[in-house]
Amino acid sequence: MDGLSGAASIIAVIDISAKIFELCQKYVSAVKEARKDIQRLRDGVTSLQDVMTDVRDLAEDSSLSRRSVFSRLNQHNGPVQQCERDLRRLVAQLEVGDGENKMRQFGLRALKWPFSSKDIDQRLQVINDHKATFTLALTSDHFALTRTIKDDIARLGDGLADMQTEQRTLAMGEKQQKIRHWLSSPDPSSNHNVACKARQATTGEWFLKSDEFEEWKMTSRSFLWLYGIPGCGKSILCSTVIETVKSQYKSNLTVAIAYFYFDFNDTEKQRHDKFTRSIIEQLAWQSTKALACLESLFSHSQDGKQQPKQDALELTLQQMLGEFEETFIILDALDECKEREELLILLEKLNSWETEKLHVLITSRRERDIEEALESLVTSEICLQSALVNNDIRTHISERLQNDSKLRKWPANVRGEIERTLMDGAQGMFRWVVCQLELLRKCLKVDALRKALKSLPKTLDETYARILDNIDEGYSQDTFRILQWLVYSARPLSIEEVAEVVAIDIEQSRFDPENRLREPRDLLTICSSLVTTAAVTVKDYDGVSNETTELRLAHFSVKEYLISDRIRKGVAFQYDIQSRAEEEIAQTCLSYLLHFQKGVLTLGNLSTFPLAQYAAEYWCCHFRAIKDSDQASKLSMQLFRGDAFRNWIRLCNPDYPWRGTNMKRDITSIASPLYYASLEGLFEPVSLLLSKGANVNAQGGYYGNAIQAASIRGHEAIIALLLEKGADINAQSESYSNTLEAASAQGHEAIVALLLEKGADVNAEGGNHGNAIQAASIGGHEAIVALLLEKGADINTQSGYYGNALQAASAQGHETIISLLLEKGAGINTQSGAYSNALQAASAGGHEAIVALLLEKGADVNAQGGYYGNALQAASVGGHEAIVALLLEKGADVNAQGGYYGNALQAASVGGHEAIVALLLEKGARAD
């Protein structure tokens, strides 16, 4: 880049800084509550502007050394370009908050400061980082500058798509961070990275050159199914497709690409709703309009206080697909989804939405239910048979023979023998080849190698049986337990966590640190090619990302073999891990936690006990899966006393599992053992604790008492036992007020019926939901609402956030409950609650059919009160144009004053809803 064009890029940064200063000036006089933050941002860009003026002089300096410094600053994706991109993004965000561009045509300005103080802290940090780099350049410290720039470019990433993702993450406001945490979608990139690592440069080339692939990309509403036998390389091929599509469309921002790997190793990646959430999240960060769809779902879920139902997720996905010109969705290993029937129904829906430019590709085994469901959906299908994948397998073998330190030692003729023998036996199975190569790596002499080649197992089952049979007897018990944990653990495990398992004596129920492996990676040696590792990024409860190495079963076929009846009939019968798996894992967790009975665990040494977090969080999960175990019950009772109990709650409080570990948690904030046993649904420990004299009505914990805790979680048998032992059925607490309200809110119909039968007060008031009928109405539990009414619930009682049941149901969009409540005499214009009346609640939520129903039944279209003042303002700020039109048609006062925004026109202006502004003006709204 010459000096003139280089200087121009610096001038662009200076001009953008000036633009930010100018935009800040607009806000100062109009947004009083944010003046300090505005001043901070203004000072930050002014300071950067001063430094950039000096850098401009550097660009115009003709000396060789100064030109050298500037060329580094101005290189592709270097500091100047990064700074310009960050500042342009900041301008765009300020202009969105300003709203002037959208509303100028109406003579309106909707001025709203778009940042929180935390947002400003983040943006000032970015600005200061840029300033530090440019200041360093001015000192001509060439070494330090070069290192800084290299670090910056490395962080930026190689591709445009990755760079955009990183910038979006940096720019993500506090609300978006909350949404991401609330959505809780699994990250498929860890699977993708593993698959990419396993493929060669030419893997899948045959498919990328095929007519079917080209047709899939170019044809509207295309659906391609790739199927094949276990171990034929479907996931690796899938990763090739993903990388190819990403590369081809990376510069086209109107094209969205999303993918998902179903994973037998990870329970979070075996559910169809998690697939839906992951696709939604990926699409959201590729378009501001798609992100707005997700933000709308978040706001309709009480700003994250509730989790969305599957139909709401699907509606959001459908809306998002409409925001792109083209969308590619790539799904691997459909057969590894535990909720396969639900997933296949979802794929049918996806196809029925008639999104013209949607391209779906899935991989799976060919199984009858999948084939039957996909028959009407697929536009093309390919069987990954030997003839198609043999070249990929041959490439893999050749690469291993050339690069593996133990295989490349053999002379060319021997390597040729290995390749020919493996190709003859592969039968299209990548996985089979991988296992045989691991076996051959152990051969030290050529005669041993040739003997192994002559006796290779013919199938994967035979291969796994031989691997297990060949494990050293001294490590067979360790191998058994490692495989047991990898199959039945509640989440993926780090290699350090699994290494702790072998140091626990299950017979003695004792953890002995001296029995630890000296090196966790020795697990790979013990278990041979049955396991593998994967480097992944996991987020802790605070959202902080950490790198870790997971130990996994090497392939889905390994898990299938281990849990099949086939293993019991072969030479590896002693590795039948099924019969007592949950019991032994529960006992292992409890034994580990009991090691901390005498105060051994502290904040300072927590990191030296890697399994502590898992044991604390999941022992109850494994315990509940046990039908009967005296030893597990005995260990649980030992845990419910002394230091071990307190350490368990400090490691993972069942009331607040999302808060993570707090080893400084105050003892007085810890509830009774009976409370936590009831909350976690541990029937046998509850029974034993009660038999030993536990106070059934002891107060404590987030839900107040044991019976309410059990009610929230739906543990009916425990509730019956607690009532039998004298639990107060109407005991009050802060969160849900009483047990009946708690069960009603969570939709536990059988428990509601039991409580009413045992004398629960149907009209007891208190808590955020006010009473049981309002709680059931919020949750959309129609049968419970009907049952409560039948048992005498007061339909118009006033309390709680929404004031009454009708407003609650209207806010959440539960039309059938609204009809039921109106039929039973609910007051349609009753004033109370956050929205003052049902019509305003429905309008705010964007529920058009409910608004129409309420108006038809006599709702006052101009009723005043509540947060938004009236229904028209509520609909206007939310951007619900059809509801605005309907309200105006029914006589809504277009200039009614009141509420947070003053009137409907100002509300629509702040929201940036141009069509609504135009409609309101057309209907006589005053712009003064």
From TrEMBL:
Gene3D superfamilies: Ankyrin repeat-containing domain, P-loop containing nucleotide triphosphate hydrolases. The keyword Repeat applies. Residues 478-568 form the GPI inositol-deacylase winged helix domain. Residues 203-365 form the Nephrocystin 3-like N-terminal domain. ANK repeats lie at residues 669-701, 702-734, 735-767, 768-800, 801-833, 834-866, 867-899. Residues 1-143 form the Azaphilone pigments biosynthesis cluster protein L N-terminal domain. It comes from the Eukaryota. Keywords: ANK repeat, Repeat. The keyword Zinc does not apply. PANTHER family: AMELOGENIN, GPI INOSITOL-DEACYLASE. This is Uncharacterized protein. It comes from Phialocephala subalpina.
